Amino acid sequence: MKYYGGCDVGSTYTKAVILDEEGRIVADTTIKSKIKAEESARMAMKEVCDKVEGLSDAKDLAYLIGTGYGRNKVPFADENISEISCHAMGVHVTDPAVKAIIDIGGQDIKGIDIDTDGTVKNFAMNDKCAAGTGRFYEAMARSFEMSLPEFSKLSLNAKDVIPITAQCTVFAESEVITLVGEGKPMDEIAAGIQMAVAKRCFVMAKKAGATDSITLTGGCAKNEGLKKAIEHVLKLKVVNLKTDPQLMGALGAAEYARQKGKARR
User: Number of structural domains, the chain?
Assistant: First the structure.
């Protein structure tokens, strides 16, 4: 049996996926990224290979592709492919009916339009500001003295929305701290935060060609409050993927590795 791997070295988390010859996921892992991208990749690949009988390390894979911002630092990788292409392919093999993605990473937001074969038709990227990214949500959760999972659910039962006007992460954090200090309802402040991010996703969704539905990838895809806000603001159904949305980049890389590895036989 031959195995194929994908390693997605992100700014916040590093993910790895191993597929068998039929494209089934046989192992995956998600770890906190280290300062050095190469160390993150080595740790993730060691951890995921240890889960598969017969694999001692990444060198035993038939083909390995690196992706993510640290894709050039994946040890033993046969090649690297952009995370935009890998997220598109990951979603395609998970649910071929989905054609539009908003990927919210640690430092940027991307809108991706998927073609019928899983390749990218069009994309847009916001990488000039951290507002609305994973780093932004970490700052917001810190302001509420909550964990990210706790914060992601806080807005779900809010009866009203307190708008957050600041566009910058630093100023937004100061605005939130002030509102909390004034005794404003925390769930309504959280709702304002989620709505602000959803509005920032509007252009990305249009660039992704979304008409009636869209899916979210990246760690922020697990944010229930954000999904609800996006459905409200964008008037689109958010499709929940059966596979962990945080693994889409690594899964797409592994699928590309499977295709390329089988083609070179």
Answer: 2
